[in-house]
Amino acid sequence: MSKELSVQAQQAFQVVALLATVCVVGIHYKSDIPDSPAIELATWNQLTQEFLFGAVARVAVPLFAFAAGLFYFRSDDGSWASYRKKLRQRTRTVAIPYLLIGAIAIATWLIVRVLEKEAIDLSTGELLAMWVLRPPAEQLWFLRDLMVLVIVAPVIRRCVDHPRWGRVALTTLLILWVGNYQCFPVLHGWYVLNLETLLFFSMGCMAVQKISWLETLGRSSDRVVAMTFLTWMMLAACRVYLRPDFDIWYTSQHGVLDLLLHQSSILVGMVALFMIAWRLRYQAFIGLSGASFFVYLVHEFPLRAVVSKIADKLVDPTTSCWLAFPLVTVGCYAAALIFAAVCPKGYAWLTGGRLPGNVLHGWSSKKVRPAIKGSL
Protein backbone atom coordinates (compact mmCIF):
# COMPACT_ATOMS: atom_id res chain seq x y z
CA MET A 1 0.00 0.00 0.00
CA SER A 2 1.29 3.48 -0.89
CA LYS A 3 2.70 5.62 1.91
CA GLU A 4 2.31 8.77 -0.14
CA LEU A 5 -0.09 11.42 1.08
CA SER A 6 -1.93 13.47 -1.50
CA VAL A 7 -1.09 17.15 -1.88
CA GLN A 8 -4.41 17.97 -0.19
CA ALA A 9 -3.64 15.77 2.82
CA GLN A 10 -0.18 17.28 3.29
CA GLN A 11 -1.65 20.77 3.11
CA ALA A 12 -4.36 19.78 5.59
CA PHE A 13 -1.70 18.73 8.10
CA GLN A 14 -0.06 22.14 7.68
CA VAL A 15 -3.32 23.85 8.57
CA VAL A 16 -3.68 21.42 11.48
CA ALA A 17 -0.29 22.62 12.77
CA LEU A 18 -1.49 26.21 12.54
CA LEU A 19 -4.79 25.57 14.34
CA ALA A 20 -3.20 23.35 16.98
CA THR A 21 -0.54 25.97 17.74
CA VAL A 22 -3.23 28.57 18.33
CA CYS A 23 -4.88 26.07 20.70
CA VAL A 24 -1.63 25.64 22.63
CA VAL A 25 -1.24 29.40 23.06
CA GLY A 26 -4.80 29.57 24.38
CA ILE A 27 -4.11 26.78 26.87
CA HIS A 28 -1.09 28.58 28.30
CA TYR A 29 -2.76 32.01 28.49
CA LYS A 30 -5.87 30.79 30.29
CA SER A 31 -6.33 33.25 33.17
CA ASP A 32 -9.14 31.79 35.27
CA ILE A 33 -10.53 28.34 35.85
CA PRO A 34 -13.33 26.88 37.96
CA ASP A 35 -12.06 25.94 41.41
CA SER A 36 -14.99 23.74 42.40
CA PRO A 37 -16.62 20.63 40.90
CA ALA A 38 -20.00 22.35 41.36
CA ILE A 39 -20.88 24.16 38.13
CA GLU A 40 -23.21 26.60 39.91
CA LEU A 41 -20.19 28.06 41.72
CA ALA A 42 -18.33 28.86 38.50
CA THR A 43 -18.57 32.14 36.58
CA TRP A 44 -19.36 32.35 32.87
CA ASN A 45 -15.82 33.60 32.31
CA GLN A 46 -14.38 30.53 34.03
CA LEU A 47 -16.68 28.14 32.18
CA THR A 48 -15.95 29.71 28.79
CA GLN A 49 -12.21 29.51 29.31
CA GLU A 50 -12.47 25.95 30.56
CA PHE A 51 -14.60 24.92 27.58
CA LEU A 52 -12.34 26.50 24.97
CA PHE A 53 -8.89 25.95 26.48
CA GLY A 54 -9.44 23.17 29.01
CA ALA A 55 -11.54 20.95 26.74
CA VAL A 56 -11.68 21.87 23.05
CA ALA A 57 -8.02 22.96 22.72
CA ARG A 58 -6.76 19.71 24.26
CA VAL A 59 -6.74 18.05 20.84
CA ALA A 60 -3.55 19.96 20.00
CA VAL A 61 -0.89 17.73 21.59
CA PRO A 62 -2.37 14.42 20.35
CA LEU A 63 -2.55 15.86 16.83
CA PHE A 64 1.05 17.03 16.99
CA ALA A 65 2.18 13.60 18.20
CA PHE A 66 0.12 11.78 15.56
CA ALA A 67 1.51 13.96 12.75
CA ALA A 68 5.06 13.53 14.06
CA GLY A 69 4.67 9.76 14.02
CA LEU A 70 3.04 9.71 10.59
CA PHE A 71 5.71 11.82 8.91
CA TYR A 72 8.55 10.04 10.69
CA PHE A 73 7.54 6.52 9.70
CA ARG A 74 6.25 7.22 6.20
CA SER A 75 9.81 7.87 5.06
CA ASP A 76 11.46 5.28 7.29
CA ASP A 77 12.46 1.95 5.77
CA GLY A 78 13.46 0.38 9.08
CA SER A 79 17.17 0.24 8.29
CA TRP A 80 19.98 1.32 10.57
CA ALA A 81 21.05 3.93 7.99
CA SER A 82 17.56 5.43 7.95
CA TYR A 83 17.47 5.54 11.74
CA ARG A 84 20.82 7.34 11.98
CA LYS A 85 19.76 9.83 9.32
CA LYS A 86 16.50 10.61 11.09
CA LEU A 87 18.25 10.89 14.44
CA ARG A 88 20.61 13.50 12.97
CA GLN A 89 17.69 15.36 11.37
CA ARG A 90 15.64 15.47 14.57
CA THR A 91 18.67 16.59 16.54
CA ARG A 92 18.81 19.60 14.22
CA THR A 93 15.08 20.24 14.02
CA VAL A 94 13.97 19.36 17.56
CA ALA A 95 16.86 19.03 20.03
CA ILE A 96 18.73 22.21 19.04
CA PRO A 97 15.61 24.47 19.21
CA TYR A 98 14.79 22.81 22.56
CA LEU A 99 18.24 23.60 23.95
CA LEU A 100 18.31 27.15 22.54
CA ILE A 101 14.91 28.13 23.97
CA GLY A 102 15.74 26.31 27.20
CA ALA A 103 18.95 28.33 27.52
CA ILE A 104 17.07 31.60 26.97
CA ALA A 105 14.46 30.61 29.56
CA ILE A 106 17.08 29.69 32.16
CA ALA A 107 19.11 32.85 31.53
CA THR A 108 15.97 34.94 31.96
CA TRP A 109 15.04 33.05 35.11
CA LEU A 110 18.49 33.67 36.58
CA ILE A 111 18.41 37.39 35.68
CA VAL A 112 15.00 37.83 37.29
CA ARG A 113 16.16 36.16 40.49
CA VAL A 114 19.27 38.34 40.62
CA LEU A 115 17.24 41.52 40.04
CA GLU A 116 14.78 40.49 42.75
CA LYS A 117 17.72 39.64 45.03
CA GLU A 118 16.60 36.06 45.52
CA ALA A 119 19.08 33.32 46.33
CA ILE A 120 20.02 30.85 43.59
CA ASP A 121 20.53 27.62 45.47
CA LEU A 122 21.54 25.55 42.46
CA SER A 123 24.92 24.15 41.56
CA THR A 124 26.30 24.20 38.03
CA GLY A 125 25.32 20.56 37.65
CA GLU A 126 21.77 21.27 38.80
CA LEU A 127 21.47 24.16 36.36
CA LEU A 128 22.73 21.92 33.58
CA ALA A 129 20.18 19.28 34.54
CA MET A 130 17.45 21.93 34.51
CA TRP A 131 18.52 23.05 31.04
CA VAL A 132 18.59 19.55 29.56
CA LEU A 133 15.74 17.88 31.44
CA ARG A 134 13.25 20.52 32.56
CA PRO A 135 13.82 24.16 31.48
CA PRO A 136 11.42 26.86 32.81
CA ALA A 137 9.55 27.08 29.48
CA GLU A 138 6.72 24.61 30.04
CA GLN A 139 5.89 24.01 26.37
CA LEU A 140 9.27 22.35 25.82
CA TRP A 141 8.11 19.12 27.48
CA PHE A 142 6.62 18.02 24.17
CA LEU A 143 9.91 18.51 22.31
CA ARG A 144 11.71 16.49 24.95
CA ASP A 145 9.12 13.75 24.49
CA LEU A 146 9.65 13.87 20.72
CA MET A 147 13.37 13.27 21.11
CA VAL A 148 12.69 10.29 23.38
CA LEU A 149 10.23 8.94 20.82
CA VAL A 150 12.74 9.34 17.99
CA ILE A 151 15.36 7.46 20.02
CA VAL A 152 13.00 4.52 20.62
CA ALA A 153 11.31 4.74 17.19
CA PRO A 154 12.71 1.38 15.95
CA VAL A 155 11.10 -0.34 18.95
CA ILE A 156 7.79 1.41 18.29
CA ARG A 157 7.90 0.43 14.63
CA ARG A 158 8.65 -3.19 15.46
CA CYS A 159 5.80 -3.38 17.97
CA VAL A 160 3.19 -1.59 15.84
CA ASP A 161 4.05 -3.51 12.66
CA HIS A 162 4.01 -6.90 14.34
CA PRO A 163 1.34 -8.97 12.51
CA ARG A 164 0.00 -10.50 15.71
CA TRP A 165 0.77 -8.15 18.59
CA GLY A 166 0.70 -4.75 16.92
CA ARG A 167 -3.01 -4.14 17.47
CA VAL A 168 -2.78 -5.54 20.98
CA ALA A 169 0.00 -3.09 21.83
CA LEU A 170 -1.94 -0.10 20.47
CA THR A 171 -5.15 -1.21 22.17
CA THR A 172 -3.31 -1.55 25.47
CA LEU A 173 -1.84 1.94 25.13
CA LEU A 174 -5.28 3.31 24.25
CA ILE A 175 -6.87 1.72 27.32
CA LEU A 176 -4.12 3.08 29.56
CA TRP A 177 -4.53 6.54 28.04
CA VAL A 178 -8.31 6.52 28.44
CA GLY A 179 -7.79 5.66 32.10
CA ASN A 180 -5.10 8.36 32.46
CA TYR A 181 -2.52 5.85 33.64
CA GLN A 182 1.06 7.05 33.24
CA CYS A 183 3.54 4.19 32.83
CA PHE A 184 6.76 6.15 33.09
CA PRO A 185 8.46 7.74 36.10
CA VAL A 186 8.89 11.46 36.66
CA LEU A 187 12.34 12.90 36.01
CA HIS A 188 12.97 16.49 37.13
CA GLY A 189 9.25 17.22 37.27
CA TRP A 190 8.28 15.76 33.88
CA TYR A 191 7.43 12.22 32.89
CA VAL A 192 10.30 10.53 31.09
CA LEU A 193 7.70 9.99 28.38
CA ASN A 194 4.07 11.05 28.49
CA LEU A 195 1.72 8.20 27.62
CA GLU A 196 -0.35 10.51 25.39
CA THR A 197 2.56 11.34 23.11
CA LEU A 198 3.62 7.68 22.97
CA LEU A 199 0.10 6.54 22.04
CA PHE A 200 -0.53 9.04 19.27
CA PHE A 201 3.01 8.88 17.87
CA SER A 202 2.47 5.11 17.64
CA MET A 203 -0.93 5.64 16.01
CA GLY A 204 0.84 7.84 13.47
CA CYS A 205 3.09 4.86 12.76
CA MET A 206 0.06 2.65 12.21
CA ALA A 207 -1.56 5.29 9.97
CA VAL A 208 1.30 4.93 7.49
CA GLN A 209 -0.40 1.73 6.36
CA LYS A 210 -3.82 3.39 6.38
CA ILE A 211 -3.20 6.48 4.28
CA SER A 212 -6.45 5.92 2.40
CA TRP A 213 -8.35 6.35 5.67
CA LEU A 214 -6.93 9.85 6.12
CA GLU A 215 -7.83 10.74 2.55
CA THR A 216 -11.37 9.46 3.10
CA LEU A 217 -11.75 11.52 6.28
CA GLY A 218 -10.57 14.66 4.55
CA ARG A 219 -13.00 14.18 1.69
CA SER A 220 -15.99 13.54 3.96
CA SER A 221 -19.21 15.33 3.11
CA ASP A 222 -20.07 18.63 4.75
CA ARG A 223 -22.84 16.88 6.65
CA VAL A 224 -20.44 14.35 8.15
CA VAL A 225 -18.02 17.13 9.08
CA ALA A 226 -20.80 19.14 10.74
CA MET A 227 -22.01 16.11 12.71
CA THR A 228 -18.49 15.24 13.85
CA PHE A 229 -17.85 18.83 14.91
CA LEU A 230 -21.13 19.01 16.85
CA THR A 231 -20.35 15.71 18.58
CA TRP A 232 -16.96 17.10 19.60
CA MET A 233 -18.53 20.25 21.03
CA MET A 234 -21.21 18.29 22.87
CA LEU A 235 -18.70 15.93 24.47
CA ALA A 236 -16.54 18.88 25.56
CA ALA A 237 -19.56 20.77 26.93
CA CYS A 238 -20.80 17.71 28.84
CA ARG A 239 -17.39 17.24 30.41
CA VAL A 240 -17.28 20.87 31.53
CA TYR A 241 -20.81 20.64 32.90
CA LEU A 242 -20.07 17.45 34.77
CA ARG A 243 -16.69 18.49 36.17
CA PRO A 244 -15.77 22.18 35.66
CA ASP A 245 -12.51 21.89 37.65
CA PHE A 246 -11.32 18.84 35.71
CA ASP A 247 -7.54 18.37 35.58
CA ILE A 248 -5.26 15.49 34.62
CA TRP A 249 -1.96 17.36 34.21
CA TYR A 250 0.20 15.60 36.82
CA THR A 251 -2.86 15.18 39.00
CA SER A 252 -6.05 13.11 39.13
CA GLN A 253 -8.70 15.75 39.67
CA HIS A 254 -11.47 13.91 37.88
CA GLY A 255 -14.06 11.16 38.08
CA VAL A 256 -14.56 8.17 35.81
CA LEU A 257 -17.36 9.60 33.65
CA ASP A 258 -15.83 13.05 33.14
CA LEU A 259 -12.50 11.42 32.25
CA LEU A 260 -14.20 9.24 29.64
CA LEU A 261 -15.98 12.29 28.21
CA HIS A 262 -12.72 14.24 28.08
CA GLN A 263 -10.75 11.50 26.32
CA SER A 264 -13.64 10.82 23.94
CA SER A 265 -13.84 14.52 23.05
CA ILE A 266 -10.13 14.46 22.18
CA LEU A 267 -10.51 11.46 19.86
CA VAL A 268 -13.55 12.93 18.10
CA GLY A 269 -11.97 16.39 18.08
CA MET A 270 -8.84 15.14 16.33
CA VAL A 271 -10.95 13.77 13.50
CA ALA A 272 -13.09 16.91 13.36
CA LEU A 273 -10.13 19.29 13.31
CA PHE A 274 -8.46 17.35 10.50
CA MET A 275 -11.68 17.49 8.49
CA ILE A 276 -11.96 21.23 9.13
CA ALA A 277 -8.30 21.79 8.23
CA TRP A 278 -8.90 19.98 4.94
CA ARG A 279 -11.45 22.68 4.10
CA LEU A 280 -9.19 25.54 5.18
CA ARG A 281 -6.34 24.84 2.75
CA TYR A 282 -5.97 28.47 1.74
CA GLN A 283 -2.63 29.86 0.60
CA ALA A 284 -2.41 32.25 3.55
CA PHE A 285 -2.92 29.50 6.14
CA ILE A 286 -0.56 27.08 4.41
CA GLY A 287 2.18 29.69 4.13
CA LEU A 288 1.68 30.89 7.70
CA SER A 289 1.93 27.36 9.04
CA GLY A 290 5.70 27.57 8.59
CA ALA A 291 5.73 30.14 11.41
CA SER A 292 3.85 27.90 13.84
CA PHE A 293 6.93 26.25 15.30
CA PHE A 294 8.45 29.65 16.09
CA VAL A 295 5.21 30.65 17.84
CA TYR A 296 5.25 27.40 19.78
CA LEU A 297 8.82 28.06 20.91
CA VAL A 298 8.48 31.67 22.04
CA HIS A 299 4.92 32.15 23.31
CA GLU A 300 5.64 30.83 26.81
CA PHE A 301 8.20 31.93 29.43
CA PRO A 302 9.61 34.55 29.54
CA LEU A 303 7.07 36.18 27.22
CA ARG A 304 4.05 34.96 29.17
CA ALA A 305 5.38 36.36 32.43
CA VAL A 306 5.79 39.82 30.89
CA VAL A 307 2.48 39.81 29.02
CA SER A 308 0.56 38.56 32.05
CA LYS A 309 1.93 41.34 34.26
CA ILE A 310 0.99 44.00 31.71
CA ALA A 311 -2.44 42.51 30.99
CA ASP A 312 -3.24 42.24 34.69
CA LYS A 313 -2.69 45.99 35.04
CA LEU A 314 -4.94 46.83 32.10
CA VAL A 315 -7.87 44.50 32.81
CA ASP A 316 -9.25 42.25 35.51
CA PRO A 317 -6.66 39.46 35.95
CA THR A 318 -9.40 36.83 35.66
CA THR A 319 -10.31 38.08 32.18
CA SER A 320 -6.79 38.96 30.98
CA CYS A 321 -6.80 35.88 28.76
CA TRP A 322 -9.21 37.57 26.33
CA LEU A 323 -6.67 40.36 25.81
CA ALA A 324 -3.41 38.44 26.08
CA PHE A 325 -4.32 35.38 24.00
CA PRO A 326 -5.20 37.13 20.72
CA LEU A 327 -2.44 39.73 21.08
CA VAL A 328 0.24 37.12 21.75
CA THR A 329 -0.98 34.87 18.94
CA VAL A 330 -1.03 37.64 16.35
CA GLY A 331 2.13 39.24 17.73
CA CYS A 332 4.15 36.02 17.66
CA TYR A 333 3.11 35.17 14.11
CA ALA A 334 3.94 38.73 13.03
CA ALA A 335 7.30 38.51 14.81
CA ALA A 336 8.00 35.24 13.01
CA LEU A 337 7.35 36.79 9.61
CA ILE A 338 9.52 39.83 10.39
CA PHE A 339 12.35 37.76 11.90
CA ALA A 340 12.32 35.35 8.93
CA ALA A 341 12.42 38.26 6.47
CA VAL A 342 15.14 40.25 8.26
CA CYS A 343 17.35 37.39 9.41
CA PRO A 344 16.40 34.16 7.63
CA LYS A 345 19.53 32.30 8.68
CA GLY A 346 19.02 33.11 12.35
CA TYR A 347 15.36 32.21 12.10
CA ALA A 348 16.15 28.92 10.37
CA TRP A 349 18.76 28.05 13.01
CA LEU A 350 16.33 28.74 15.86
CA THR A 351 13.45 26.81 14.31
CA GLY A 352 15.34 23.91 12.79
CA GLY A 353 14.95 25.08 9.19
CA ARG A 354 11.24 25.84 9.29
CA LEU A 355 10.41 29.01 7.37
CA PRO A 356 7.09 30.81 6.83
CA GLY A 357 5.89 30.19 3.31
CA ASN A 358 7.65 26.82 3.16
CA VAL A 359 5.41 23.79 3.18
CA LEU A 360 6.61 21.70 6.07
CA HIS A 361 5.29 18.42 7.33
CA GLY A 362 3.88 19.57 10.65
CA TRP A 363 6.85 19.27 13.02
CA SER A 364 9.01 17.42 10.51
CA SER A 365 12.12 18.89 8.91
CA LYS A 366 11.48 17.40 5.48
CA LYS A 367 10.74 20.04 2.87
CA VAL A 368 7.78 20.05 0.53
CA ARG A 369 7.53 18.32 -2.73
CA PRO A 370 7.78 20.63 -5.75
CA ALA A 371 4.12 20.04 -6.65
CA ILE A 372 3.06 21.57 -3.37
CA LYS A 373 5.43 24.49 -3.61
CA GLY A 374 3.87 25.34 -6.91
CA SER A 375 0.44 25.44 -5.36
CA LEU A 376 1.29 28.15 -2.86
Automatic annotation (TrEMBL):
One of its GO terms (biological process) is enterobacterial common antigen biosynthetic process. Keywords: Acyltransferase, Cell membrane, Membrane, Transferase, Transmembrane, Transmembrane helix. The chain crosses the membrane at residues 12-31, 51-73, 94-112, 140-156, 168-191, 254-277, 284-302, 322-342. Its main location: membrane. GO terms for cellular component: plasma membrane. It is a multi-pass membrane protein. The lineage of its organism: Bacteria, Pseudomonadati, Planctomycetota, Planctomycetia, Pirellulales. Coiled coil: none annotated. GO terms for molecular function: O-acetyltransferase activity. This is Acyltransferase family protein. InterPro entries: Acyl_transf_3_dom (IPR002656). Residues 19-339 form the Acyltransferase domain. Pfam families: Acyl_transf_3 (PF01757). It is found in: Cell membrane. Belongs to the acyltransferase 3 family.
